Amino acid sequence: MLPRVIDAHRVLPELVWCGFGVLAMLMQPFVRSRHFFTFLALIGALAGTAASVTSAMHAGPGFDGLVQSDSFSFFFRLLVGTVAFLVVLVAEPYLERERLPFAEFYALLLFATAGMGVLASAQELLTAFIGLEMSSISSYILAGYRRDSLKSSESAMKYFLLGSFATAFFLYGIALVYGSSGTTKLTGMGSEELFHSTYFELGLAMILIGLGFKVAAAPFQVWTPDVYEGAPTPVTALFSAGPKAAAFALLLRIFATVPAATHFWFWAFWVLAALTMFAGNLGALVQTNVKRLLAYSSIAHAGYIMVAFAAVTFMARSGAAEAAPAYAAVLFYLLSYALVKLGAFTIVSQLGGAGEKNLSLDDYAGLSQRQPWVAAALSVYLLSLLGLPVTAGFFGKFYIFKAAVNSHLLWLAVLMAINSVIGAYYYLRVIVVMYMRESSAEAAAAPPVGFPLTVNFVLAFTVAGTLYFGLFPNQVLNFILQPTLLGH
């Protein structure tokens, strides 16, 4: 039976991303121009992101309820599509410098983005598994894309082995959920009997393990520093923003439609939030490699988002409307976090130089004198990660903290405040190195690192977004808090 036209509309972004990815692979033997493939990837990423508008205009379940096109999926498709577009802009000078193939990189990037879109719109667990695999397999290859680098190959192998292990947990969890509920559709898991089903709870726990790996939640975070350090830096930027947002989207989708999941996972998220915050922040304190420092920072921020998840599960017991502010806190935080991490890794990508050799904190000494605008942009990102006012990170942390207090999770709010203070040390340490330490003689004599037009556009876009959402968050919050977005 052929799918209906309306079903195609509801998965149009994923079709466009996959279509352009296939086109890049087919054109690779015939076209030698690298700029052609960059242009093709930009058009593909932009077209898929624009198609999310068409998909949102034809809202509703697609393919007999396997996917759901709504304001929620529109938000995340817009987010991951924008991330893909910006990563393409950052990747072109990087691939040129490292002499890496263009077509395969962009095709894998678009395939990974399509997988993230499927994850965000999945309303059925096997569909979510397909989206997870689309994203993961492309990510494994991208992590090892610098084939001549031992670190890159090591990161790909670690990511593949641990990712496959986590995927097995996810798939076995689906099997247990299906065995206990008789369905893999999230909308069909509303039976009262599931509240007391041991197999259903065990299945949910295994699904949590699988998704916990993707979001780098402790104790499933051990892969993150090595993979982030070894992967090409534009790929690291993608990892820090796209797959993490898509995995959180699936977790939110489960909470919105499966009451038994909300009932069971409260204490799990409480413990995960505390462990993840401390694992990330304490690990970052001793780092001298900027990519590893930002990797541990990503772990810590996953913990902050888990605080909002704990608030969601607590408040959802009183009704979906009560949990809406906590849902909104997660979405706003993911948006602000994606902007900041993309910008920070863009700067690291350019300053790293050929072979990514300049990644230590000492290489950033005196950056404010050599390249003041770059130091200023990186300072904005770090202050946003810290959560200072006038940046998007301030409101992101504020809304999560408020959700925790309103849910009477006072101890978790206190732990979040303590971790924010710990994070201040290593974020401010980077700023101190850039502004208060002298450059080495070698760095002072070297010419300034070039920042191409595309990279400058990404930096301007992310800095402007970070400051804009830090000053005017209400427009995004009003969209997030609309009833149709959360499916209430």
Task: Summarize this structure briefly.
By secondary structure, the protein is mainly α. The protein has helices spanning 5-10, 12-27, 34-57, 71-98, 103-121, 125-143, 150-181, 198-214, 224-230, 233-257, 259-264, 266-284, 290-315, 320-351, 367-370, 372-386, 392-406, 410-436, 441-445, 453-471, 474-480, 483-486, and strands at 60-62, 67-69. α4 (71-98) packs antiparallel against α20, α5 (103-121) runs antiparallel to α6 (125-143) and α13 (290-315) packs parallel to α17.
How do the strands and helices of this protein lay out in sequence?
Blueprint: H1 5-10, H2 12-27, H3 34-57, E1 60-62, E2 67-69, H4 71-98, H5 103-121, H6 125-143, H7 150-181, H8 198-214, H9 224-230, H10 233-257, H11 259-264, H12 266-284, H13 290-315, H14 320-351, H15 367-370, H16 372-386, H17 392-406, H18 410-436, H19 441-445, H20 453-471, H21 474-480, H22 483-486
Antiparallel strand pairs: 1-2
Helix pairs in contact: 2-3, 2-5, 3-4, 3-5, 4-5, 4-10, 4-14, 4-20, 5-6, 5-10, 6-7, 6-10, 7-8, 7-9, 8-10, 9-10, 9-13, 10-13, 10-14, 12-13, 12-18, 13-14, 13-17, 13-18, 14-16, 14-17, 14-20, 16-18, 16-20, 17-20
Task: Describe the 3D structure.
The protein has a domain at 265-488. It is 76% helix and 1% strand. The chain contains 22 helices and two strands. A two-stranded antiparallel sheet has the order 1-2. A hairpin with a 4-residue loop joins β1 (60-62) and β2 (67-69). α7 runs antiparallel to α8, α10 (233-257) runs antiparallel to α14 (320-351) and α14 packs antiparallel against α16. The longest helix has 32 residues, at 150-181. The mean pLDDT is 88.
